[in-house]
Amino acid sequence: MSKLWAGRFQKELDREADDFNSSLHFDSRMFRQDIEGSIAHAAMLAKQGILTETEGAQIIEALGGILADLESGALAFDAEAEDIHMFVESVLTERIGDLGKKLHTARSRNDQVAVDLRLYLRDECAEIIGLVKALLEAVLEQAKAHADTIMPGYTHLQRAQPITFGHHLLAYCMMLIRDCGRLEDAVKRMNQNPLGSCALAGTTYATDRSDTSRALGFDGYTRNSIDGVSDRDFCLELMSAFSILMMHLSRFSEEVILWSSWEFKFVELDDSYTTGSSIMPQKKNPDMAELVRGKTGRVYGSLVALLTTLKGLPLAYNKDMQEDKEAIFDSVDTVKKCLRVFAPMIRTMRAIPENMYAAAGKGFINATDLADYLVRKGLPFRTAYKIVGQTVARAIEENVVLDKLPLETLKEYSPLFEEDVYQEISLETCVSKRISAGGTGPCSVREQIAYVEDFLSERSGT
Q: Could you say which residues of the chain have pLDDT below 70?
């Protein structure tokens, strides 16, 4: 396939250099968006009288045919093409002759690729946001089922205070809600039309950028033609949102891995989302969670790679910017794959409440509640804290939990201890009395569940 830019050159491009320069093998995935943008451009040229109405209609019809043939498989990508833009234009010219060469009037590949990429990422974001919501629904389902399932809460991976499994899972729901918001915000800033910026300076033709913006579903057009072709902030912002989302999935994966180990055994993953060992027949490995945790680094790497690529580029377009696509495409693919496996893995995960409760009974996680008991009796908190620390040391010495220390022993540390102390430091009481907003108490957990349900309901149509 001859190069559409070859007129000025006396020699053909070196074969190795040609392969190195080519981007078709990865940017061909934008063929729908490339043709969509070209159709909008051709329609605008015809409306503005830059093309005749007949010419515009012929180009649009031919582009529609190319799209249909690519989607059906009747037309294959030509490996000799430099990129998706030149491939489509070459096929168009083959089909309708010199008229096809008029399509590129008042347009450059610089603004063409910028519009293709925004359209492609906008489409992908809609799917990814849907996948995040599907995961949110799966986590919420488990949280509702285990709103009253008592487990130990941790700080520093040390047992800290009693909570419910539902409350713990709802923390991930809040993260996922923020992830949806970040993705939606990124799309808002992305949704500006660069088409019409041309190479960098605009065009001498009387084009109508508002027309192509409406046709392509953009909220408006980029206000500076240099920025229009050289901006890749929208890629960076989206990849940053992906990285935060993957960080949340990685943290969740780490806990699932811990919870499913014999040391915890708080959950059991479904066989469909685990694998075995080639040598140890007893093993049930949480490989899906481990892969999500591992692929998080891959998404981080793509973000850092693109930041590094862009950091020293002068305005406007530079060929270095071709490196944006493999990075953002790989991030999109990785995030989608992780979300698609994560949601059903969580939905089919089986909690083991008896193991959670047994773990909550150890580690003195009701110590804060014992201190609060003394505070309600009139002691300053710091005094109560010291007394409870002493009783914990005594319990460790006698190898018992706090609620098994005799009342006589407790009174050695404070005469304020009475028989009612044992009810006050039971796990059920410790959880039910966490009445502050956002806490693990039953009313708060129900409010959190309602909040997540409202979020999903409000966005059910988006």
A: 1-11, 13-14, 18, 461-462
